[in-house]
Amino acid sequence: MTLRLYDTLTRAKRDFVPVDPARVTMYVCGPTVYNYAHIGNARPVVVFDVVFRLLRRLYGADHVLYAANVTDVDDKINLKAAQEGVAIGVITERYLAAYHADMAALGALPVTFEPRATQTMDAIIAMIERLIAAGAAYAAEGHVLFDTQSYADYGKLSGRSLDDMIAGARVEVAPYKRHPADFVLWKPSKENEPVWESPFGPGRPGWHIECSAMIEQTLGLPIDIHGGGNDLIFPHHENEMAQGVCADGHTATYANYWLHNGFLNLGTQKMSKSLGNVQLVHDLVRSARPEALRWALLSSHYRQPLAWTNDVIAQAKGALDTLYGALLRATDVEATDCEPSEAFLDAVMDDLNTPKANAELFALAKLLETGAAHDRAAAKGQLLAGGALVGLLQGSPKAWFQGAADGDLTEKVEALIADRIAARAAKDWARADAIRGELTALNVEVMDSASGATWKLRETAV
RNA sequence: GGCCUGGUGGCGGAGUGGUUACGCAGCGGACUGCAAAUCCGUGUACCCGAGUUCGAAUCUCGGCCAGGCCUCCA
Q1: Where in chain A is the domain with CATH 3.40.50.620?
Q2: Gap from A268 CA to B67 C1', in Å?
Q3: How far is CA A430 from the centre of its chain?
Q4: Nucleotide lying nearest to A160, CA to C1' measure
Q5: Nearest nt to A227, CA vs C1'?
Q6: What is the reported pLDDT for A461?
Q7: Considering the entire predicted model, what is its pTM?
């Protein structure tokens, strides 16, 4: 069974072969920390977290290096800092902490490296110097620009030619550019903006160079997998690749597999900060089950657009109710076969077909509900192992249903249920129903079974 | 204007040249003292038109619709 991944550069699903199985590398463009992350920002985080988990399974946890950068200097951060009258570090620390908390709530594992732009300045400057020396960049009016015409493959990733770019240019072209597509590597800082000394004059780096320098510094070329949202294909990843390859003297490819996730739509449009139609993870993890959010993000294929609605979250919660319900009723079953089932692995290995993998989870849950003892034990092991591979179903089933109940309520409910069991044993149906009424008033639903009674807290929200 | 996706049952969503996933919700039944949960069963699904084919929702062409990128953006 081989992992197959869809590569944007070759536009094909290809078998994944790492450069070095003992050192598998992955880089994903991380956040610019000037605000809370929205659920659209979380999609790549969750998707590539699944890739990360899968690679760790295939090559060993110690053999996979995952880097995600933090952009901690840019115009929006500067603006926010100026508005609040604080240093940019105050802004970036605040929102980076929130980002970490939000992504952890969604079940994302910590990445191996989290380089920051402000701490990579030497490498960025050194890379720009190499690009100039290689004839791939030029200085002009205090800026340093990448010379797109010097790189024959420019446009290959996004599938557009330099001519297309001129035809499609919607931006005014700065007069000092040799070609309209040339982009900034270094630019002078405006007044009151953070500034770094460099051989090209005081200033700050362009956005694209940051990622190239970080990849080179933390992972080294070529990396196996480069990921991000599909809006980054052009210009960001196109430019990154051009910089990386040219600075490297064209000796290595930049990334062997380019993975891009589709967007989250809110209504008919993509969710984006500039459109203002965002739902913050920070808020969602409080109004909905974080695990349901993760399920919802994985409920469609990662390259497809996902229409984000309350219904999607509610359906995700319903699906997890079914799965956790099966596990709750199987508390006494000792799990065996603690590996994902073959069908589950097949689905995940086929370019991360998580919807198909989820279907397999339901098949296992059914087996767990209805199978013979031996099959139930295996199904439970496979269900939990499959869940672990995609970062789901790892909580206790009891906590899933009763999680929001505090100790006092739990004690009260348990006492009422004990009374009701006694009443039922005495066939005192009136009393049993009266107690159920009390439980209902507490927002508690009781479920009788042959082996006793369990209960769950009814959700007031999704 | 250039480049690129996608249109599947009430909703979400895989997939495939012929056997028509899966989930959520609904309905019928079983079980239950009654419920809930569970189990069993159930629904004329594949945007339109033409073509290729013994056979297309799946391939080709055309059209319509929706969205993305070309500018900061996951």
Answers
A1: 4-261
A2: 7
A3: 52
A4: B3
A5: B74
A6: 45
A7: 0.95
Nucleotide nearest to A74 (CA to C1'): B72
At the fourth CATH level, which superfamily is domain A4-261? Answer: HUPs (3.40.50.620)
Span CA (A132) to C1' (B12), Å: 52
Dihedral pair phi/psi, residue A226, rounded to 5°: -120, 130
- Strand B nucleotides within 7 Å of a protein CB: 1-6, 11-15, 21-25, 32-40, 66-74
Taking alpha carbons only, the member of A440, A334, A313, A425 closest to residue A377 is A334
Task: Report helix, strand or coil for A61.
Answer: helix
> Helix A290-298 vs helix A354-370: angle between axes, to the nearest 10 degrees?
120
Q: Does domain A269-399 have CATH number 1.20.120.640?
A: yes
At A223, list the tokens.
């990396």
In angstroms, how far is B5 C1' from A10 CA? 16
Q: How far is the CA of A55 from the C1' of B23 (A)?
A: 27
Residue with CA nearest to B15's C1' atom: A356
The 10s digit of each residue's pLDDT in A114-130 is 999 999 999 999 999 99
As annotated, the residues of chain A forming the CATH 1.20.120.640 domain(s) are 269-399
- So what's the ipTM on this one? 0.93
Q: How far apart are CA A91 and CA A93, in angstroms?
A: 6
pLDDT digits (tens, 9 = 90+) for A216-270: 999 999 999 999 999 999 999 999 999 999 998 888 889 999 999 998 988 778 8
The residue that minimises its CA distance to C1' of B5 is A304
**DSSP-derived secondary structure for A364-433:** HHHHHHHS-HHHHHHHHHHHHHHHHHHT-S-S-HHHHHHTT--HHHHHHHHHHHHHHHHHHHTT-HHHHH
- How far is residue A233's CA from residue A228's CA, in Å, rounded to a whole number? 8
Closest amino acid to nucleotide B12 (CA–C1'): A312
